[in-house]
Amino acid sequence: MSNYQEAIQWIHSREKFKVKPGLKRMEWMMEELGHPEKKLKAIHIAGTNGKGSTVTFLSNLLQTQGYDIGTFTSPYIIRFNERISVNGEAIPDAELAALTEAIKPLAEKLKGTSLGEPTEFEIITAMAVIYFSQKHLDFILFEVGLGGRYDSTNIIQPLLSVITNIGLDHINILGNTLEQIAYEKAGIIKTNTPLITGTKEESALSVLKEQASVNKAPVSILGENFQVEHIKSSLEGEYFEFKTSSFHSGDLLSPMKGRHQVDNAALALQTMEHLKKMGVGINRTQYSRGLLRTHWPARFETISTNPVTIIDGAHNEEGTRALVDTMKRHFSGKRVHLIYSALEDKPVKNMLEILKEVVDVAYMTTFEFPRAMTGSELTELSPIPDTITVSDYVQAIREATSTIKTGDVLLITGSLYFISEIRKYFEY
Question: What NCBIfam families is this protein classified in (predicted)?
Answer without folding.
Answer: folC
